[in-house]
Amino acid sequence: MADARPVEFAPFSAPRRGILVVFCGDSLAFGAATTRFLRPCGDLVTKAAAAQKFTGKSGAVLDIVMPRGLRADRLVVIGLGKVSDIKPVDMLRFGGMAMGQIPRSVPNATVVGELPAGALTPAQAVDLALGMRLRSYRFERYKTKPAEGALKASTVAVTIAVRQATAARRAWAAGRGLGEGVMLARDLVNEPANVLFPKEFARRAMALRKLGVDIDMLGEPQMKRLGMGALIGVGQGSEHDSRIVVMRWNGGKRGVAPVAFVGKGVCFDTGGISIKPASGMEDMKGDMGGAACVVGLMHAIAARKAGVNVIGAIGLVENMPDGRAQRPGDIVRSMSGQTIEIINTDAEGRLVLADVLHYVNKKYKPRVMIDLATLTGAIMVALGQEYAGLFCNDDTLATRLTAAGEATGEKVWRMPLGKEYDKMIDSKFADMKNTGGRHGGAITAAQFLQRFVGRTPWAHLDIAGTALGSPQTEINKSWSAGWGVRLLDRLLADVYEK
Ligand code: MN
Ligand code: ZN
After folding, report:
1. Catalytic residues, which ones?
2. Gap from CA of 456 to ligand 1 centroid (Å)
3. 3-state class of 282 per DSSP?
4. Which position among 37, 106, 312, 418 has the lowest Cβ density within 10 Å, counted as fewest Cβ atoms?
5. pLDDT value for 151
6. Counting runs of H as helices and runs of E as strands, what totals does the chain give?
């Protein structure tokens, strides 16, 4: 259970104590219900706004302590800017902004679920609630002393006053699961690698059985039998055995091919024998962000009983440099039969994915396959941390992913694939080598993966810039944003559940 404040819905007439949060548009445009709530305090808001030069600009906040006439002991007015500029995706952000005004020490808070243009629909209320909950998420399980005055987040709910409280509660049953999925992904990425090694990661994924997810696990003996030399090579320098976990959600029609998601789960990446520099290496506990996203996604779709067949497969390894570790120059044989010359043991993610992608493609014959991986530093050089890199062999799938990205704010930017790039990973000694050099590093990594997906429509998301050390936004104040769960949940809902 994630550490975040629960959200409840109450009708507009709910009693109000503690903090009251309301929204307003440019030129102090309030909705009708908000205006009614504020009537007892007369011209207080107009006067305070004039004194503070507050006009309702996007992101501006007017904070009035002990507002006369109201029962609340603080009134917070949040500016949303020009009403006609508000997009559906902004609702999450507004929720984040509202929660940002509610200190952890305050047990009672009500957010009025109304925009200047009118009361929130149940779907908008759910997005607002999701934004609030994600904003309140914290990863503090290793802090033995709580912050001064802070209440335990999970015990004190914030109320959203909405017109259709019953309908909002019903809609929240699904939206809530999505939030839990995002926070599960965040938890997994934030966990240190001494706690979250492959076996423990697998154990946490297995907990999804409670939600009706079927789960199979492969240990090293099975992987050896299947000939997964690429994945096994990465984990062989670690004391921790590697694992593959395959999660199956059968919510669609029987016999319909599944949508498959594959996640890179390098629980810690030292680089192996091609060891990384010390500075910043601690961040490599997050090199399993792709696998975390897949687990979070499976949670979300199982919680809302999505009407679609989905496979979620994660390759879990630890990349360490001990006496048995693989060396530069080694040649391994992947499950597909293709051989790989290891040039740099730090280019390990693609080796893990090569075997998992081939395995999933062969065994489950998915209609489409999408992998997520914190794969290359090169993608951050190209795109920074605002967009994940999208590599795709299918224009329709690329368009759909791009649309889901715009709709959720988890944006992807399509990068090229092509023969010329593919040549860069040809090897003198084997079928391919595991790096293509510095130039186009994110692209040659994707070319490598493409050699393991056959003709299946496939997309690769390089999330090295978005999954960890994530940008701080109104809905994320954590080191990990749990990036991709909302994106892929949306893709499934918009495309594959129709
Ligand atoms: Mn690496
Ligand atoms: Zn890595």
Report:
1. 276, 350
2. 26
3. helix
4. 418
5. 83
6. 15, 19
